[in-house]
């Protein structure tokens, strides 16, 4: 039941690369009929919709008696009815022959004719075998959530096979352009080279003529609709929606040899991504826009809807809109508050509707992510959501993980000039090399020292964001680490933000926006300046993975690592798209059941999510 509350006019919906929504639904599972034999997937008797990869014009037939005990003429006669024997496999499997069919005779017809004979044990297609479907996308080794060999990603080595078994699933299907996934988010950079081939197109609309050609109430909605700006511009300034979309369906196998591209691959290589913009450049939106976006996705044929967003307040209207779109499987994020949703609330995750799947996040060791919400009844399943590499609508203009010496890149100065690198960070879960103000110990009282980035060109760029991981032990409200920006190395410096107090959280990404006055600057510098008073001191600041990215263009450097249940959710949406590609007529109820019944059960998720498991793509499409 909804809680009584004095609601404000606008309920904020927040993108969840740092905080998301979660559900407490208890939808009943659909019944599975029993007693009727079903043809195997790929069986030529399964009907026209069953995918089958066959060696054209060939079958395998096993006679009930091996050649040495059966009249040679009788076997020849049987084979001659459908074709001719081209290889005897009798020494391996007694009675087995490989048969090439007569021209014009289908595999299905030959199998039926042969199996009607009393001297034939069975006949079957000669199925094609392929090498494992590993795409040539050069950054796949960094995408541990798809294929985890224990590789080091951003200084963290994972546990082998703590992944969704994507390559194994790709041996069965890599998706279908007949499946549409709506991405209700901050927009999508549809021109990104990894996304452009898979973007949805409204073929009933003529682009740019100012006319609602298909009469759906939206003018020129050739590439989806922006419900924030009420226009057809679904581009993504925030970057969140593009990251989500590429995890679902970045085109696979498109890394051009010798072109120097560095691209990624989605869970579903082939899919149609429908951008529905419901969040603004800051990652915020309203329930009203989300409801309108849900209806738009439904009306435009979406099979799956990805909602990597959420809020704390119950809305009957939002619930009704999602339930009314019963032909869409809604995959939603559980939220990033680290809360048990048996007690806390987060929506739309907490809605009790049958076509909804709520997703928690796991790390590369198959442990529940520290930030992820959970709930033994309210959250359905988990998926990879920590340090997820995907495409971005933003250009990375600077990035440093401090694994190599800073000399020649960073400048340092002030009193005392002590900034440098260290691997000794005073929290147990901090790994790798960090930049710190005082590598040898606590910072001295009254000091004023700094570390400055090299020059960055922001030409043609805007909406720039600084991301970093930090551990801080700074006297609260008296000592400060200041992040400053300037267009000249000598200043003047503009204070962007300050950090103070104790923050022992090394793996959460902190994000700060640069002032708009730096948009388009020919050059810009950042510096971290420790500025304590003359009383008390602390262990100082430790910084890692400092990145500056801006909107304005996409290209080979438009990729980013993000963490959150927002990043876990599209893994599940991608698997749902593979299931739909494999079984085009599957219902939303059966699709949900297939997703949840094919998980890898993990001790770390027992009692934390309803299935007790992390999604497994290979099992889901088998």
UniProtKB/TrEMBL annotation:
Signal peptide (UniProt feature, chain positions): 1-26
Region (Disordered): 24-48
Fervidolysin-like N-terminal prodomain domain ranges (all copies): 47-126
InterPro entries: Fervidolysin-like_N_prodom (IPR054399), Peptidase_S8/S53_dom (IPR000209), Peptidase_S8/S53_dom_sf (IPR036852), Peptidase_S8_Asp-AS (IPR023827), Peptidase_S8_Ser-AS (IPR023828), Peptidase_S8_subtilisin-like (IPR050131), Peptidase_S8_subtilisin-rel (IPR015500), PfSUB1-like_cat_dom (IPR034204)
Origin superkingdom: Bacteria
Alphabetic keyword roster: Hydrolase, Protease, Serine protease, Signal
Family: Belongs to the peptidase S8 family.
Comp. bias intervals (Low complexity): 39-48
Protein name (record): S8 family serine peptidase
PROSITE patterns noted in UniProt: PROKAR_LIPOPROTEIN (PS51257), SUBTILASE (PS51892), SUBTILASE_ASP (PS00136), SUBTILASE_SER (PS00138)
Stored Pfam families: Fervidolysin_NPro-like (PF22148), Peptidase_S8 (PF00082)
Catalytic residue positions: 185, 240, 566
Nucleotidyltransferase in keyword set: no
């Amino acid at each position: 039941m909804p809680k009584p509350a004095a609601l404000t006019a606008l309920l904020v919906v927040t993108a969840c690369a740092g905080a998301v929504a979660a559900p407490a639904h208890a939808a009943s599972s659909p019944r599975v009929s029993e007693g009727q034999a079903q043809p195997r997937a790929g069986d030529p008797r399964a009907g026209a919709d069953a995918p089958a990869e066959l060696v054209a014009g060939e079958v395998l037939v096993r006679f009930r008696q091996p050649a040495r005990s059966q009249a040679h003429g009788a076997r020849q006669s049987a084979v001659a009815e459908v074709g001719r024997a081209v290889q005897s496999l009798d020494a391996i499997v007694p009675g087995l022959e490989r048969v090439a069919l007569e021209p014009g005779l289908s595999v299905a017809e030959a199998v039926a004719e042969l199996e009607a004979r009393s001297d034939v044990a069975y006949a079957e297609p000669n199925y094609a075998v392929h090498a494992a479907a590993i795409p040539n996308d050069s950054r796949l080794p960094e995408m541990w959530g798809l294929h985890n060999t224990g590789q080091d990603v951003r200084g963290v080595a994972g546990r082998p096979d703590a992944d969704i078994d994507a390559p194994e699933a790709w041996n069965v299907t890599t998706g279908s352009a007949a499946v549409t996934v709506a991405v209700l988010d901050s927009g999508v950079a549809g021109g990104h080279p990894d996304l452009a081939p898979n973007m949805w197109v409204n073929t009933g609309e003529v682009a740019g003529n100012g006319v609602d050609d298909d009469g759906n109430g939206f003018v020129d909605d050739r590439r989806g609709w922006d419900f924030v700006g009420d226009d057809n511009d679904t581009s993504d300034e925030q970057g969140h929606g593009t990251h989500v979309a590429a995890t679902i369906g970045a085109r696979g196998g498109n890394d051009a040899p010798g072109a120097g591209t560095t691209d990624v691959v989605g869970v579903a290589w082939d899919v149609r991504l429908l951008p529905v913009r419901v969040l603004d450049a800051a990652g915020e939106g309203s329930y009203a826009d989300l409801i309108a976006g849900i209806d738009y996705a439904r009306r435009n044929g979406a099979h799956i809807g990805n909602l990597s967003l959420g809020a704390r307040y119950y809305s009957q209207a939002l619930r009704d809109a999602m339930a009314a779109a019963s032909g869409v499987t809604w995959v939603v994020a559980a939220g990033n508050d680290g809360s048990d949703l048996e007690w806390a609330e987060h929506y739309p995750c907490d809605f009790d509707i049958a076509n909804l799947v709520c997703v928690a996040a796991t790390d590369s060791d198959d442990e529940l992510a520290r930030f992820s919400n959970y709930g033994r009844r309210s959250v359905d399943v988990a998926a990879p959501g920590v340090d997820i590499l995907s495409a971005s609508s933003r250009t990375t203009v600077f990035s440093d993980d401090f694994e190599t010496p800073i000399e020649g890149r960073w400048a340092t100065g002030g009193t005392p000039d002590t900034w440098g690198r260290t691997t000794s960070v005073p929290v147990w879960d901090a790994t790798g090399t960090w930049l710190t103000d005082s590598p040898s110990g606590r910072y001295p009282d009254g000091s004023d020292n700094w570390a400055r980035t090299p020059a960055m060109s922001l030409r043609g760029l805007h909406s720039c964001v600084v991301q970093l991981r930090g551990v801080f032990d700074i006297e609260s409200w008296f000592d400060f680490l200041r992040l400053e920006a300037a267009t000249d190395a000598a200043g003047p410096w503009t204070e962007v933000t300050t950090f103070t107090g104790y923050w022992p959280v090394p793996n959460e990404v902190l994000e700060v926006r640069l002032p708009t006055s730096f948009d388009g600057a020919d050059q810009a510098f950042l510096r971290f300046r420790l500025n304590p008073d003359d009383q008390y001191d602390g262990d100082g600041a430790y910084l890692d993975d400092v990145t500056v990215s801006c909107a304005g263009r996409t290209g080979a450097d438009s990729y980013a690592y993000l963490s959150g249940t927002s990043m876990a959710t599209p893994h599940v949406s991608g698997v749902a798209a593979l299931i739909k590609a494999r079984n085009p007529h599957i219902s939303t109820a059966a699709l949900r059941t297939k997703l949840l019944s094919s998980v890898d059960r993990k001790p770390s998720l027992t009692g934390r999510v309803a299935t007790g498991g992390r999604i497994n793509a290979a099992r889901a499409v088998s």
